[in-house]
Sequence to fold (602 residues):
Amino acid sequence: MKKLIRRILAVLLVLLLAAALPLVAVNVSEAGKAYIAHEESNYSWGLPLRVYDTDTHTYIKNIQVARMYNYRGNQRDMALSPSGDRAYIALNDPYRSSVAVVDTASDSLIKRIFLPMRHNFYSIDISPSGDLAYLFASNYNYSGYLFVMDLNTSQIIISVPLGGGAYWGRVRVSPDGNLIFLAKRTTLMILDSSTFQTLNSIGLGGSNTGDLVISPDGKKAYASSINYLNANAHLFEIDTETLAVVNSMSTASGFQGIDVSPSGEIVYATTRYSGKLFVIDATTFEIIKVVENVTSRSSGSLAFLNRVKFSPDGSFAYISTRSGGSFGVVVDTSTHEPYATFPGKGGVIAFIPDNAAPTANAGVDISLECTSTDGTAVVLDGSASTDPDGDTLAYTWTGSFGTASGISPTVIVPFGTSLITLTVDDGNGGTAIDDVVVTVADTTAPITSATLSGTLMSNGWYLGDVLVEVSATDTCSGVARITYTLDGALTIANGDYASATVTATGTHSVVYSATDNEGNTSADASMSMELFTADSDGLVALISTMVGEGLIAPQMENSLVKQAGNGSYNALANHIKAQTGKKIDPEASALLLAAIESITGH
Fold:
């Protein structure tokens, strides 16, 4: 009969709630879904972890986090990894407590990690780095322990005894990971996370711990107590720098659940028995509003209020119920009024963020000097890409080279401008792209060279015609033209080769340069040559050139020219020999005698 009455009351409860608080679909795309753990004990089967759609505030599915039968415990607490990809649930079981690890992407149980002995398991929190779990438990004499678990190995690596009186409680780690706040029954302990020494101990009053939270910026902690005898219990505000209580307030039954808005401006605190929601200004610690009868506006409180949790964007908050409630309440944080319900009761609430897309960053545009006509090596850099969930990213680069993988691959790009696309994939369905422009420039002038081809005599003069050849090479853009002047006469030849034949006796000079297709022009280079033709005209021209250069006395010119012109080579040779070292420079004399020999053959 009692069971029947309870069922009838539960049905009436839902009907009353439906009249006062109809289900409302809201569009809050940031949160996606929430997990709600069942904090109350059940002695017949393992209660599942509930998954809710926070857009519509409707039930999605159950996650069975413990064995279905003979499970005599409950889901006391829950913590998320920093990226939100794992949920860790504290499963209290008199036979053997454990940590259930849930993959939040697939909503599936990965494993259970058992505590080393039989303990009452009250609370869990995760380090900011995501590699450690802090577990608060007690034995059956209510002697408390803080266990530190390495989540990579699933092993307990540190066990810190906390003394007696550890009945119920919470453990929370500061955002910087330096402090551990641990509320055990009516005492708040603040520990150094490196030494586990107690830095301060604060009495909470009441008969048991209500809740414990730390503000998003880590500057304040809030701890509450409840009292089953309806005596005053408290809500404390603690300065995390001084570790001292700076504000407090009390209410008859105490404060059950606490949370701080993401902005850090508002504190929500629920009362266990009276069904009230306290809205508190976090700056002044003054009460802004008290919302009466949160679960029913018609006839007082129909259910005990339990935990409260703000959505990630702070636009709404979930309040769970227990001991008689069959639903939870959604509060509009702009009005601080209930406006929707979600089915089923529960305890601990965690918002599971949707997988956030990564941000691809292919780096700044790159300019390189061309090194080869086959392409230039460039090192790409995607290290500035990020993922808000902390997912491991895969990097794929595409361009004229094809495809390359890795955060910083080396690829070959051609001369000119290339667009390269980076795609990053977070492995959970999130991708992003970014482009980088790589410009392979040619700012280097061509390399030039020139050669002379002809009959070179021992004295350095050429006998007869001389072929002058100018060539140029360019690594990347290619040679556009060669420009040269021969004895002051300008010639421009397209391409990388030019030539000219020098036939006149005397000293000649060539000045040359090359320009590539990017407009880079080499510095002028030059070369000179001296030649004469093997005949009387060439010999006459040679004598006149030497007179002009001061190698032959001017008064000798007419007689030497006359002998050369009429072919009197033997007489000319004797004349030159007689004046060598006198009116004819010895080097000029040797050159003239060699020229005569080249003409006469002896």
